[in-house]
Design brief:
mainly alpha, 75% helix, 4 helices
Amino acid sequence: IVRERNSFLKEHVDDIEFPIATNVLEVQYAQAIVWLGFYYAPLISATMIFFLIILFYAKKFTLFYNTVPPTKVFRSDRRNFVFQTLLLLTLVLTTLPIGYTISRCT
């Protein structure tokens, strides 16, 4: 919004780069809460899914209107492995307490 206007504000506000890695990790954290909350509190999962939909559109608006492309190229081939590994680790760590709870109840 600031980029499109010639104003005093445009001269004194720097352009913001969209941090891809940070946003991916935020989504993975929210996904972990959904997985963990699915067994213990199903309402948390429903709330987080609603939150993720709102978050998607808020980040989309921010990406298109408030940020500029990063100056450094995002190397998805290197980070894709790291993100997939973190997602798998998150899944394993969220199934451990659920598995323990189920085994103690039977």
